[in-house]
Amino acid sequence: MSSTQSDLYHQPSLIYIINPTVKAYSPPADVESRVHKAAVDVLGGDENNWRKMPLEDRTLKFKFLAKLTKEFDHNIPNRELNSMQNVETALDYFKTRVRDTSAYEDLSKLDLPKNLHMNLEPIRFHPETDTIYGGKTAFPGRPTIVTSIKYRRKYKGCENKLNDD
């Protein structure tokens, strides 16, 4: 790794670019003027043709995108970095609204018919807490495994024993 690459890797602003968390983002009304200002400040070049400025130099691309990330408080996922070949593609990214809800959650917020109900919190079977079936599972011998780190605190996994019935 060259010293330039090493320096870039250890800059604290890199955290903005590689942070994988998704949060809602609504683009401000002046996105275009702010991206234009950042492009001229960091990349230099022609004022009139700023949208077509290439992002070929990795150091300049990093500085430009780090500045925009900080300016808009909007992270850029790794999958988007390679597609940003010029200022216009970066502008398109920062113009795009991001929602932090799933389609399922959006559906539940609609005005649903009276006979339709959506339960956002699933009811998980656990033999110790089951009050409906007396602790008997529909899947004897198969464990209930919670694989998500997020949901391990919320739901308990269990080893389902074979029913004697």
TrEMBL record:
Location(s) in or outside the cell: Mitochondrion
Gene Ontology terms: cellular component: mitochondrial large ribosomal subunit
Domain of life: Eukaryota
Record's keyword terms, sorted: Mitochondrion, Ribonucleoprotein, Ribosomal protein
Keyword Ribosomal protein: yes
Cross-referenced PANTHER family: 39A RIBOSOMAL PROTEIN L50, MITOCHONDRIAL, LARGE RIBOSOMAL SUBUNIT PROTEIN ML50
Protein name (record): Large ribosomal subunit protein mL50
UniProt organism field: Potamilus streckersoni
